[in-house]
Design a protein that fits this description.
heterodimer, A: Multidrug efflux transporter AcrB transmembrane fold, Alpha-Beta Plaits, 2 domains, 4-stranded antiparallel sheet, B: alpha+beta, Multidrug efflux transporter AcrB transmembrane fold, Gyrase A, domain 2, 3 domains
């Protein structure tokens, strides 16, 4: 059985302008949504607060829950449905880290049982104090930063076989980060700064493959974060894990295509770049689609069957896999074409 | 032949080792070795992060030193020196008479050499010397406080009876506690967080309680309250007591604390035993203060203040109050385990009920089975026999990940299960790359044998490359992640390594075996 015939020849590169447009639109929507919502919606992991997952044995009204919470001074909490519809589970979220006082959980249980007239089970409670929230924020951002750093070093070395240059790059990046750190820049801007420095370095050192990979990566992460923002989903530690996985996965795809491009450049070096790029993408199309398909099989299963806790995580992965596949085909390779223009000017 | 026989041995050894490692988790009775650890989100339990208030530890140390200085001054009969604790951790000594300065300084040099002098000023004939504890000593005290707190909490939890608790230090002054399977989380929290400082102080009945309440607190005295909760109305009432500040005896001298039932009132009380030194002190206190009231103070609340009827020798005493048996038992536990050197604050708490844990396992395993099944069926449909080989590799992957978790005693969490599921989807990738290559080579006209070799050779480097990036992401996550996320990083890393092994070594071996002695013209791929 074959989905993709061996002699397939879709003109991906030719359609790149449309792809650029689509990508630009998605990026703008993503960034727009982020700005509109004032940044990503942080879960209690990063913001501090208390989270209570409650299960009722019979269906109840959210208003009844809110009344119950008001009685114990938790009026400012948000109440959301959680998990499967038949499970009657709700998630109560409040910004203050209150729960350490004596008998908090039993108070909540009594109040809710009283206001809804049904049996309540407290399935899970999570409280994160502001100090720990800040620690986790820093850890998450450090994780993203270091992942970026190591991957940058790896792909500049691996793609260009210019390990010396990648070493220099790492040093330059480290230096830039140090300077930014001294200026007491917060970590998100540190990451942006590092990215900008990386891209500039790539441009000047002519590390075209690395640049294509990083651009595709940034594209994927931005759109995933944006879609999360549009659907107003929370960022927890698990979502950061999903983002890092998407980074790894997207790079996988991109590396496969680039390897093929290099192989074909050697074989058909007389042909124009556009033809070679197209051919490479088409040759790897089968593999790209198949891997996305199998990964989607499992991730969609997780999304549907995995339960409320893993739900958002699976959602992030689904977006990441789809966008990652799209970017490997339509974004990473055309960027190499932009280099050709530059080299002609020489 | 020779070439792949050592690979064969390797593969069999790995498979055997994997089965041995995973067996305990499936049938615990068969092999009493390490099982797979389940995270709290899968087995239910409580995760607590406490912060030891080292500042307060310093304060109480400084307070103690101030008291010692006062006692020494009395002993040496140096008068007109006022010792106070200021700014939390500094000691100010105000010497009002010229003559005393010399003797005071001599005393400081003799007995309190470790104190650091911050300032020395003379205003209106009063010399004020401000001292504090030097930095290195301060660090020492803080570290000791955290160590002691850790030890004390461990003792308390031991007595509470939780199976496999995990208590460890986190950073400079934090303590991480994981109590799997715990049901009564409120009681556990109270037990852990209680400072439990037991002090015996004399009640001052000679001075007016009312005037003290209005603000005229005489020197060396303090007001502490007894808090009573009426079991019927659930209302609390606070009764003030005027006490002499000086602590005569603390819980440090206790050797034992037990719950007994008072036969007269059928109420539980805690009977405590002092050690020899404590017993002597107690005897002296009771002998010197007959007919006065001795307040038993726990965490700055008066528990009770009975009248001393006579000298009590033998070092036994009772703590009564309106306890339930459970409260009495918990009080006995904290008294036995000792007081925390400083208060602890709860910084983070995550509790998962057991029903949720079981649900999560069920859902995770269901997703794994169905997702896995989809992939397996698809692979067979798309790649036929080769797909079957890939499926065998897949199942082996899962076995290896499980064995790896057991061998390294890593913790399986819900995101960890998601990681295994993700590996199923991504591990197939390695096989897909190889099979697509083989198909290409066959389309170019090569024999099956040559196609397979070419396919594997060409694809190996690409596969290694691609998986390295996922591995980098997983390792970074492992380094910076906490709890459940760390579990994800572990299974993802194990999965990547396992899939490299199964795809490059194992499935190739199977192909070789199939083609070994036959002349195959077509390949089922």
């Amino acid at each position: 059985m074959q989905f993709v015939k061996p002699d397939v020849n879709i003109n991906f590169i030719g359609k790149r302008k449309i792809a650029y447009l689509a990508s630009a639109v998605m990026m703008i929507i993503s960034i727009g949504s982020l700005i509109l919502h004032g940044g990503p919606r942080l879960g209690i992991d990063f913001q501090g607060g208390t989270l209570i997952q409650v299960k009722f044995l019979t269906p109840v009204q959210i208003d009844a829950i809110k009344t119950g919470l008001q009685d114990i001074d938790l009026a400012t909490s948000s109440v959301q449905e959680f998990g499967d519809l038949e499970s009657n589970e709700y998630l109560i979220r409040t910004d203050s880290s209150v729960m350490t006082s004596e008998g908090f959980t039993s108070d909540v249980q009594k109040a809710l049982a009283f206001s809804t007239g049904g049996e309540v089970e407290i399935r899970r409670v999570e409280m994160v104090g502001p100090q720990v929230g800040q620690d986790l924020r820093e850890k998450a951002l450090s994780a993203m930063f270091y992942a970026l750093l190591f991957i940058t070093i790896y792909i500049s070395g691996r793609f260009e076989f210019k390990w010396m240059i990648s070493g220099i790059m790492a040093a330059a990046l480290g230096g830039a980060v140090y300077v930014l750190d001294q200026l007491n820049v917060s970590i998100p801007w540190l990451i942006v700064g590092a990215l900008v420095v990386t891209l500039i370095l790539f441009w000047f050192l002519e590390l075209k493959y690395a640049m294509g990979a990083i651009v595709a990566l940034v594209h994927d992460v931005t759109i995933t974060v944006g879609i999360f923002s549009i659907f107003d989903k929370e960022f927890t530690l698990a979502i950061i894990a999903a983002l890092l996985t998407i980074i790894g996965y997207s790079l996988n795809d991109t590396i496969i295509v680039f390897d093929r491009i290099r192989e074909n450049l050697r074989k058909y070096h007389k042909n124009p770049l556009e033809i070679i790029l197209n051919r490479s993408v088409n040759e790897t199309l089968s593999r790209t689609l198949l891997t996305s398909l199998t990964t989607l099989f499992v991730v969609v299963t997780l999304f549907v069957l995995g339960g409320g806790i893993i739900h958002d995580f699976a959602f992030a992965l689904i977006i990441g896999v789809v966008i990652g596949t799209y970017s490997s085909v339509f974004v990473a390779s055309p960027i190499l074409l932009a280099w050709q223009g530059r080299q002609r000017k020489k | 032949m020779k070439n792949f026989s050592w690979k064969l041995v390797l593969v069999f050894v790995v498979i055997l080792a994997a089965i041995i490692y995973i067996l305990p988790s499936l049938k615990p009775a068969l092999w009493p070795h390490k099982q797979i650890n389940l995270g709290l989100d899968l087995q239910g339990g409580m995760h607590l992060v406490l912060e030891v208030d080292t500042e307060k530890a310093l304060e109480s140390t400084v307070e103690r030193i101030s008291q010692e200085i006062r006692e020494q001054l009395k002993k040496e009969r140096i008068r007109n020196v006022a010792i106070d604790r200021v700014e939390g951790i500094k000691i100010s000594a105000r010497v009002k008479k010229e003559g005393s300065i010399e003797k005071f300084r001599a005393l400081l040099d003799d007995e309190f050499r470790d104190l650091r002098e911050l300032s020395d000023s003379k205003v209106d004939g009063v010399q004020t010397i401000v001292m504090d504890i030097p930095d290195s000593d301060r660090d020492q005290i803080e570290k000791l406080a955290v160590d002691q707190a850790l030890e004390t909490i461990r003792n308390r939890i031991d007595q509470f009876g939780v199976s496999e608790p995990d208590i460890r230090r986190q950073g400079e002054n934090r303590i991480l506690i994981q109590l799997p399977g715990i049901k009564n989380t409120q009681r556990a929290k109270d037990l852990i967080g209680k400072t439990a400082l037991l002090e015996f102080k004399l009640v001052d009945d000679t001075q007016s309680l009312d005037s003290a309440l209005k603000g005229n607190l005489p020197p060396g005295r303090e007001i502490l309250y007894q808090i009573d909760e009426d079991p019927q109305t659930q209302r609390t009432s606070k009764t003030p007591f005027l006490l002499k500040k000086r602590t005569l005896l603390t819980g440090a001298y206790l050797t034992d604390a037990r719950v007994q039932i008072d036969s007269q009132f059928n109420e539980p009380y805690v009977s405590i035993n002092f050690d020899k030194k404590g017993a002597r002190i107690f005897e002296r206190i009771t002998a010197d203060n007959v007919q006065k009231r001795l307040a038993i103070v726990l965490d700055n609340s008066v528990y009770s203040a009975p009248v001393i009827q006579e000298k009590i020798a033998g070092g036994q005493a009772r703590i009564t109050g309106r306890f339930t048996t459970e409260e009495a038992r918990d009080l006995a536990i904290v008294l036995r385990a000792g007081a925390l050197p400083a208060p602890v604050n709860i910084l983070e708490e995550r509790t998962v009920g057991p029903s949720l844990g079981a649900d999560s396992i069920r859902k995770g395993l269901l997703s794994m089975c169905i997702g896995g099944l989809l992939v397996i069926i698809f692979m067979v449909i798309y790649y036929r026999t080769a797909g079957l080989i890939a499926d065998v590799a897949l199942l082996l992957n899962i076995l290896l990940i499980g064995a790896g978790l057991a061998a390294f005693q890593a913790t399986l969490t819900l995101p960890g299960i998601a990681g295994i599921i993700l590996t199923i989807g991504m591990a197939v990738d390695a096989n897909v790359i190889i099979f697509e290559r083989i198909r290409e080579e066959m389309a170019l006209g090569r024999t099956p044998r040559a196609a397979i070799d070419a396919g594997y050779d060409r694809a190996t480097l690409t596969i290694l490359d691609a998986n390295v990036t996922t591995l980098i992401a997983a390792l970074v996550l492992f380094q910076f992640g906490t709890g459940p996320v760390k579990g994800f990083a572990v299974t993802l890393s194990l999965g990547v390594i396992a899939s490299l092994f199964t795809a490059l070594v194992m499935s190739r071996m199977i192909f070789n075996y199939i083609l070994m002695n036959r002349k195959v013209k077509t390949l089922s791929i």
